[in-house]
Amino acid sequence: MNKKKKTVTTPDHLKARIKSLQLRLKAANLDALLVSNPVDIRYLTGFVGDDSWLLVRSNSIIVHILSDFRFDEQIAKEAPHAKAIMRKTSLTVALKQLVEKYKLGKIGLQQDHVTLAQSKAIGKELGRSTIKPFDDGMLVQRAVKDKTEVKPILKALDIQQEAFKRTCEYIKPGMTEYQIAAYLEYQMRLLGADGTSFPSIVAADANASLPHAIPGQKKVRKGGIILIDWGAKFGGYCSDLTRVVAIGKMPVKIKEIYQICLDAQMAAIDAIAPGKKLSDIDKVARDIISKAGYGSQFGHSLGHGIGLDIHEQPVLASRAKGVLEPGHIVTVEPGIYLPGVGGVRIEDDVLVTESSSGGGKKVLSDLPKTLESAII
Ligand SMILES: [Mn+2]
User: Fold this and answer.
1) Are 138 and 20 in contact (CB under 8 A)?
2) pLDDT tens-digit map of 139-155
3) Distance from the CA of 49 to the center of ligand 1, in angstroms?
4) Residues 165, 99: one domain?
5) Which residues form the domain of 159?
6) What is the 235 CA–ligand 1 centroid distance (Å)?
7) For the chain, N or C: smaller number of CB within 10 Å?
8) Could you say which of 107, 142, 177 is where a domain stops?
9) Ligand 1 center to residue 306 CA distance, Å?
10) Is residue 258 located within the same domain as residue 121?
């Protein structure tokens, strides 16, 4: 191929991300980090492919992507600032050549994203003393979203909300959970989603008491409920919402727990602000549900971060340490599950902002959730 290489400077938002990682590398006396988690590679470079490694040196903004022919054109397009190495050897040999070229002494490995076999192979090629399993801090770094990350999440929410509205118009008694899930996901693709954030949950009646129900052949019925937990992916970013709807009329028991869940969810959202303890936000919702007598039917944590992964930091849970920071985007999703009867979970996505603006939060989703709006 007759390619002219021109130098492209690293975009500012990627520069900031790489520099933040470099501070941790320097503090740990590492000359470089071998990034093997594809999601982190995307976050640090913009390159979306897989089967590739990224080498970030502690003293240079120039990063290397170790890849192969399949991704040559893609890297040039998505990460033109990166040095792409189209290896003809194994990844480990290609890595060794880079390490020798730059005389790198100590290389960190992403301890949660390297298999034992890979670690052995790298150790054999580079020498055991060269590599070190490293807690890279990428999860904590990625928890705080920059401006370029809020946009695609808002777009993902737009798509999933519109798809939900269309699905509510489509639902008729006698349809299966499968049918409804298929329609919902099809609409998200039509509206421009990369795909779903996770396999959609569509659970009719008693199935709704399973927090992670898998859609099946069960049919929805007039006077019955449907719990839908779904999300769209856009530009790599995930959104995540849950609503419960009833066809025509909501059973009395479900009405009761619906209102309790809604009260708990709105109180927890209200409590969100920078500096607030993660565990305290969980407690606000849990106290309301416990007081109503359903504490033991709310067995999961209140919420989680969303981003390039569907489950990210921070986690809103009783055991969670730490506080909310501006730039966190979390789900708030209390639930009450009654085996054999059904369940309710109401979930929205909330951005933590500087406390001077709008009380320290912005609810990014705006699908109606009153009891009245839940009747379709
Ligand atoms: Mn969720």
Assistant:
1) no
2) 999 999 999 999 999 99
3) 26
4) no
5) 147-374
6) 19
7) N
8) 142
9) 8
10) no
